Amino acid sequence: GAVVSQHPSRVICKSGTSVKIECRSLDFQATTMFWYRQFPKQSLMLMATSNEGSKATYEQGVEKDKFLINHASLTLSTLTVTSAHPEDSSFYICSARERGGREQYFGPGTRLTVT
Amino acid sequence: GNSVTQMEGPVTLSEEAFLTINCTYTATGYPSLFWYVQYPGEGLQLLLKATKADDKGSNKGFEATYRKETTSFHLEKGSVQVSDSAVYFCALSALEGWGKLQFGAGTQVVVTP
After folding, report:
1. Which uninterrupted H or E stretch holds B41?
2. Contact assessment for residue B73 and residue B88, using Cβ atoms and an 8 Å cutoff
3. Does the structure show a pLDDT above 90 at B77?
4. Whether B43 and A43 lie within 8 Å, measured CB to CB
5. Is the pLDDT of residue B79 over 60?
6. Chain B residues within 8 A of A49 when measuring between CB atoms
7. DSSP per residue over A62-102, as a string?
């Protein structure tokens, strides 16, 4: 149980385009989802927290107009990187948590490369 | 604010050696503590957890004990295998802030045959 999937696992896009990453909880209802960014050989940086049906809360320094997060249902959250640039290339990881739970379940990550 | 400090890597050791990765934390209240493992090219997997003082989390031969008096959660394994080569992250989750995870910097472990 407690499986989180991400799609796509890898994506390459051209500079200036937008790309959407999906995060799904497959066997539980995720009232809260988190989006992280991980640079090579570094720790995870929390980008934003989203609760189902409400706007995401972004961490300091994260541009909310660039990283659009939508948590439209209890099993799906999306991260859209708008007008992507090479510096947005990174490993993006989502996690999901059930109502009242403390544990986060992580997706396998999405490798974004912007050329 | 909350923070997690873990020993820097890489840690290189031979198969069957004893592994310790130190982790200390700063937090208000009573956080839950976690160790996550990340194998090359993959996302994070929960390795073990402890939710209150003196709890011992264990999994796959790894152990860590929640020590409130020393604010520590050191990870140990008595005999490592090559397949244990990965990056290990210590993390805490507090009730406030929707239980956001605060990660340490990660420690890369390399086990050689």
Report:
1. none
2. no
3. yes
4. no
5. yes
6. 98, 100
7. --TTTEEEEEEETTEEEEEE-S--GGG-EEEEEEEE-TT--
Q: Kindly state whether B100 is in contact with chain A, defined as any CB-CB distance less than 8 angstroms.
A: yes
What is the pLDDT at residue A113? 97
Asked if B109 contacts B11 with a C-beta cutoff of 8 angstroms, the reply is yes
Look at A69 and B94; give whichever has higher pLDDT.
A69
Q: Is A87 an interface residue toward B (CB < 8 Å)?
A: no
DSSP 8-state class, residue B42: S
**Cβ pairs bridging A and B (under 8 Å):** 52
- Determine the residue type at A90: S
Percent of chain B with pLDDT over 90: 71
- Element at B7 (helix H, strand E): none
Distance from the Cα of A66 to chain B's closest Cα (Å) equals 22
* Residue A8 near residue A23, CB atoms below 8 Å: no
**Residue B31: C-alpha distances to residues A2, A34, A55, B52 (Å):** 22, 18, 26, 8
Residues forming a β-bridge with A78? A22, A70
